[in-house]
Amino acid sequence: MKLRRKLLGLSQSALASALGVTFQQVQKYEKGTNRMGASRLLVLANILQVTPAFLFAQEEDGRSIGAPQNLIETDKITSFLATREGLEINRAFVSIASPKTRRSIVALVVALSHEKSAGDQPDDLQDIEGIATAPNVQFL
């Protein structure tokens, strides 16, 4: 809920107003402190431009994404996506039309994430195993 709200650029107050509740109530919904009734859930899904099922996202085995074993990783991802950098990266990424280009970017980011420390960073992207750079492409 929080992630989608931020992706749409809605404040807690704006969402609260649209839902007909206080911003404190939105905070409680986002933290999972308070439950939401079915009718309000449908209104929320409409405001956030998602299906109600989106708000009940689960892993393939049926476990809730918010299950304890996944909570820390989910919190890290949500926290990153809520940052200006996270939003900018995601907006730019989803605007890339080529699936091949998107897969290459994912491979690059995964390869970079496996580097041991800043001192081990390659001088050239071609030094990263599995990454081939296109000619005439400049990286900042």
UniProtKB/TrEMBL annotation:
PROSITE patterns from the UniProt entry: HTH_CROC1
InterPro entries given in the database record: Cro/C1-type_HTH, Lambda_DNA-bd_dom_sf
Segments forming a coiled coil: none
Presence of the UniProt keyword Signal in the record: yes
Record-linked Gene3D superfamilies: lambda repressor-like DNA-binding domains (1.10.260.40)
Cleaved signal peptide residues: 1-16
Span of domain HTH cro/C1-type: 1-55
Family annotation (Pfam families): HTH_3 (PF01381)
Keywords: Signal
Keyword Protease: no
Molecular function terms, GO-annotated: DNA binding
Name the UniProt record assigns to this protein: Helix-turn-helix transcriptional regulator
Organism of derivation: Aliirhizobium smilacinae
Lineage: Bacteria, Pseudomonadati, Pseudomonadota, Alphaproteobacteria, Hyphomicrobiales
